[in-house]
Amino acid sequence: MRRWLSPDASRLFGLLRPWRAWMAIGVLLATVAALSAIGLMAVSGWFIAAMALAGASGAVINYYTPAAAIRGFAIARAGGRYGERLATHDATLRALSGLRAWLFCKLIPLAPARLSALRSADLFARLRADVDVLEQFYLSVLVPVIVAAIGSLAVLLLAAAVLPSSVPVLMLAVIASGVVLPLWVQRRAAADAGAVVREAAELRGLLADALRGHAELLAWGGVDAHAGRIAALDARIAARRRRIGRLEAIGGGGATPLAQLTVAALLVPALSAAHGATLAPPLLVMLALLVLALFELITPLAPALAQWQATLTAARRVFELVDAPPAIREPVEPAAVAASPAIRFEGVRLRYATGAPWALDGVDLDLAPGARLAIVGPSGAGKSSLLLALQKFYPLQRGRILFGGEPLDTLRGDDVRRAIAVIAQRNALFDLSLRDNLRLAAPASTAAQIERALHAAQLDAFVAALPRGLDTPLGEGGARVSGGEARRIAIARALLQDAPVLVLDEPTEGLDATTAARLYAALAIAVRGRSVLLVTHRLGQLAALVDRVAVMRAGRIVECMDTATYLRQARGRGILVRDAIAPA
Amino acid sequence: MAQGLNLPSAAGREWLRGEARTLRRPLAHSAASTALQTVVAVAQAWLLAGILDAALFRHAALAALWPQWLGLIGLAPVRWWLGQHARRVADGAGLALAVRVRKQLLARAQSLGPLGLRGLASGAAITRLVDGVDALLPYAARYLPQATAAVTVPLLLALFVFPADWISGLALLLTAPLIPVFMVLVGGAAERASRERLAQLTRLGAAFMDALGGLVTLRQLGAAERVADRLERDGEGYRKVTLQVLRIAFLSALVLEFFAAVSIAIVAVLIGFRLLWHEVAFRQGLFILLLAPEFYLPLRALGALRHARMDALAAAAPLAALAEAPVSAASPQGGQGVPPVTAPVARLESVGFAHAGRAGVLEGCSLEIAPCCITALVGASGAGKSTLLDLLLGFATPRSGRVSVDGIDLVDLDLAQWRARIAWLPQQPHVFEGSVRDNLLLVRPAADASAVARAARITGLDTVIARLPQGWDTPLGEHGVGLSGGELQRLALARVWLREGARVLLLDEPTAHLDAVNAAVVERAIRAWASTRAVLVVVHRLETACAADQVAVLEAGRIVEQGPPRELADRGGAFARLLQADQTCAAG
Question: What stretch(es) of chain B map to CATH 1.20.1560.10?
Fold first, then answer.
């Protein structure tokens, strides 16, 4: 089968291999149910015709066997469907967690350098949709296609045994309604379907503008014009969807009239055979009902084929994503990371794409073990790039970074990152319990350690107020905690990590004064006994955390001085520092 | 499947019901078409039964049966057209509903006002407006028509089966109502179980995407591999739990399948024996057997569409919440016209304001913005400078005191007209989807090329455009080129300078992100415009404040000082203290 499948398709089948036994059980039960449904109708047709003929001729008839068969088929159909549902869902769930784990492991080494999906909400949404499509592949494509194939074959074989001249008609009907018609519909709808995807993304963008740019639209008097653009685009999308729906109705609903036409066509050879006494009359009735039952199997083929196309597209995108070579190559024989590493940047240049502007343009920097340095500069100066380079997330184009005297190239990224604790403006939290969120970096933390960390991060009151304490789940992306709480949780997490280097990335940005003030105390505890690298565009009260300040501009460190000097100079330049205006 | 964790709510259910009610007419139209289609199906069954009856018992050849045979063929396109039509009408109704709901909810969200919108998680709101509204589509266009068909089609069929053979009709009709009864019996548990299953599956998907979204953090923490294991383990755990639930949940489907299959069997066996005993004619018997599967088809199709209803209910909860969100009081239309031509005098008169549910930002704040004058507003970040601009723009109404323009309360003024006279530079300008030119022309769609060029030259936007790959046509926004802070600032400034007709300038940190040379150019341009306009500038650099005509110091929610910078410097008040602090720093 592999030979005539596209590489993406055969790779997809390869991925599903581990669960093929479970999947086969599901298909088997589905086939039993489908064949029972056909059998029920066919035998019923034969039975009433035979009974009627026996009644008319007064002949004796064995009605026990067919009546029992009818009952048997009925029960097998219902039971088969029930079993099919359980088995196919079981197989789907097995494959689902396996596929997700596979994808996740493949993506780990690609983040963040090769994973643009993490930076664009649009691409992330598409990845999410692609994963959904792949997970539904078995249930919505494999099962209906295989069942339709086996069922059609069974009907054709039976028809061949009863009336060979009916086979061409039936084959034609199966191919026309099960393959040709759906493919024609798909081809006709392809242009509109593609446009809908594009225009839906555009609609999302316009809606984002309408909400995020509402103040400006209001100030410029453009609200109605913008709403008009949205309405026009929405109407265009609706018109396309209407056209697609009409075509789909032809593909799906087209099977019903085809069933009637097939029965009519079948009657031509069947009636002449019955007339010529080469076909027993009850079998004539059975054939007619067989055809009607057959079409119940064929109708699901149209959506299944459409889904197959969607699956291939999704598979191609996912495979392209996971096949990207990692940006960072890890050393074969890694060196060991020092217990309290000094950090040294030597002429480091970094850019995110060839031809893009330099994010880091020759950075030289020294941070002795235990030293505390702030890097200040306007947004876009390269502060975040510096941190990403230090954590071995991006390759350097020029220069090198020494971590504990060893160049980063000779160290394993995981080892480097284990030695660096990060507290950022946005700290990703996960839909785990608070305890599990805290223990992410240090799974072996004891209850006492956790309690100490929570206390240091001033979270005691917060935890006490939680309905389930440490077992309270924090919601998707930590949605159930506020920005200030999230940062204090990140501080507690960083304390538990017990890393020799602490990185603070705009730790108080976007917080109101009271919340920020509460954070300073916690941060002061977090920096104790570690090397500190603080990145911010405004120093303010964070100045208390560091000994020296480096000023960064356009990818370079332009000056470096002690904190007091920096504060004096900053005020001299007329930059209002928060503490300068606060009432004394 | 992984569409956030929205559980159905009573409010959502109620809202969805209300929206569905608006579709009554087109859905009735669709249902009528489906009913006619059923009648045609009955006719076809009758013809087919007639042909086979004639062939079996009168040994008729096809040649003798051609009228029936042609009828069978001729009815196929009619049945097809009716089915198409029913679906087309339902599709149209669903799509119209989605477009209308989207429009209404957007207007609703916008009526929260700029300040209300800042508190709204816009990412989630956009997902609701796009995906949430789209989830209504299969519900309205598929589920609702099918729910009607599940009732009408069996009843209609019974109408034809009864005259043919009332005993079979009774058998069908008696099993059919049993299905809902049993489904209610099993269904209470099944419905709850299947909802739980949906929630668990959603949670599983959400946990996966959650971990994927935070992958960089997980790598930083060295926890990525552990989380991968955990995802697989959790998946396996969920599978076991879910299957237990499914065993019960699928029982309701089993009941339906069982009755559908068994009633066909009963009808077939019953008819068989009654044919043997001459109690019924063969044509009638076959006719009923042909219709028996059709009897249960709509109910089974409805079962398959249950997820559409669940999705719509899940989507409806947040949509209903949005539809019922409180609206801000300020309405943009109506009110008095703004006195034209000259620059007006705008005043804040002991204004008090607080953001919803938070401590007061402004309290007894008074400020006058005079024409032909630059007023510099200084104060610590978070002191409420931007809020003050919001009040002047009419984005929010004061809790106490009033904002007036030439003596008229802003509440009584036509806000659209007032805003038409303002050029505003927000602190965080928004970049719209579209080209650079689109982004600029948004503020004045009818601007001619020379005005655009002038605005670009004054603000230094022209040098930015010269560097962009496609110049003026370079796409911006999430799908386009990203601008640096300085580039964005120049675009936003160019928007201000394109509003040449404006008589009031509200500028929030106009020289932020700009280098000294560009900042000086912009400051000169502000000075030139001030000769005919009223200008309020929020500044961070004290030297800029010193160059203004008036300085206002905002502290603890009020303007503690206002006057020419020289005078204020000599007076020894708040502004002098600020300058002092600066100079001590410089000297020490």
Answer: 9-153+308-328
Question: What is the structure's pLDDT at B386?
Answer: 83
Mean pLDDT estimate for chain A: 87
Instruction: Give the pLDDT of residue B146.
Output: 92
Give Cα B184 distance to the centre of its chain: 34
Domain B330-421+501-588: which topology? Rossmann fold (3.40.50)
CB within 8 Å: B542 and A574: yes
Put simply, the answer to whether A245 touches B87 (Cβ < 8 Å) is yes
Question: How distant is the Cα of A13 from the closest Cα of chain B, in angstroms?
Answer: 20
Please determine, for residue B369, whether its predicted confidence score (pLDDT) is greater than 80.
yes
Q: Show which of residues 459-498 on chain A sit within 8 Å of chain B, judged by CB atoms.
A: 476-477, 493, 497
Residue with tokens 């087209």: A254
Size of interface A-B (CB pairs under 8 A): 446
Residue of A48, A106, A233 to mutate for B, most B C-beta atoms under 10 A? A48
Answer whether B62 sits within 8 Å of A204, measured CB to CB.
no
| Chain segment B427-469, per-residue pLDDT in tens | 888 889 888 999 999 899 888 999 999 999 988 899 888 878 7
Strands lying side by side in the sheet with A501-505: A420-424, A501-505, A531-536, A372-376, A548-553, A556-562
Q: How confident is the model at residue A74 (pLDDT cuts 50, 70, 90)?
A: very high
What one-character-per-residue DSSP string does A299-332 give? Answer: TTHHHHHHHHHHHHHHHHHHHHHHHSPPSSPPPS
User: Per the CB < 8 Å rule, is A128 touching B254?
Assistant: no
According to CATH, where is 3.40.50.300 located in chain B? Answer: 330-421+501-588
Lowest-pLDDT range of A551-565, B346-360, B383-397: B346-360
Q: How confident is the model at residue B42 (pLDDT cuts 50, 70, 90)?
A: very high
The upper half-sphere exposure of residue A32, i.e. CA atoms within 13 Å in the direction of its Cβ, equals 20
Angstrom distance (rounded) from CA A215 to CA A479: 26
| CATH superfamily of domain region A342-417+535-572 | P-loop containing nucleotide triphosphate hydrolases (3.40.50.300)
CATH of domain A2-190+249-323: 1.20.1560.10
The CATH 1.20.1560.10 domain(s) of chain A lie at: 2-190+249-323
Q: Is the CB of B54 inside 8 Å of chain A's CB atoms? A: no
CB contact under 8 Å between B293 and A206, yes or no, is: no
Q: Which residues of A touch B253 (CB under 8 A)?
A: 81-82, 85
Q: Which of B53, B103, B208 to mutate to test the interface with A (most CBs of A within 10 A)?
A: B208
User: Could you read off the pLDDT of B274-313 as tens digits, one per residue?
Assistant: 999 999 999 999 999 999 888 888 887 887 787 788 888 8
Q: CB distance from B250 to chain A under 8 Å?
A: yes
Just give the CATH number of B9-153+308-328: 1.20.1560.10
What proportion of chain B, given as a percentage, has pLDDT over 90?
A: 29
Q: Which of residues 553-572 of A touch B (CB under 8 A)?
A: 567-572
CB atoms within 10 A of CB A413: 20
pTM for the predicted model, two decimal places? 0.80
Task: Tell me: pLDDT of A114 over 90.
Answer: no
Tell me the C-alpha distance between B487 and B466, whole Å.
Answer: 12
Q: Does B147 touch chain A (CB under 8 A)?
A: no
Q: Do B541 and A275 touch (CB under 8 A)?
A: no
CA distances from A211 to A180, A408, B2, B105, B322 (A): 46, 44, 24, 11, 13
At residue B4, the pLDDT reads 38
Tokens at A93, concatenated: 């769930």
Cβ neighbours for B392, distance < 8 A, ≥ 6 positions apart: B346, B348, B369, B403, B422, B506, B536
Q: At what angle do helices A255-275 and B66-110 cross, to 10 degrees?
A: 170
The model's pLDDT over A197-209, given as tens digits with 9 standing for 90+, comes to 889 888 988 998 8
Q: Point out the residue among B117, B239, B542 whose CB comes nearest to the CB of A211.
A: B117
A579 touches chain B (CB under 8 A): no
Asked if the model's pLDDT at residue A60 lies above 90, the reply is no
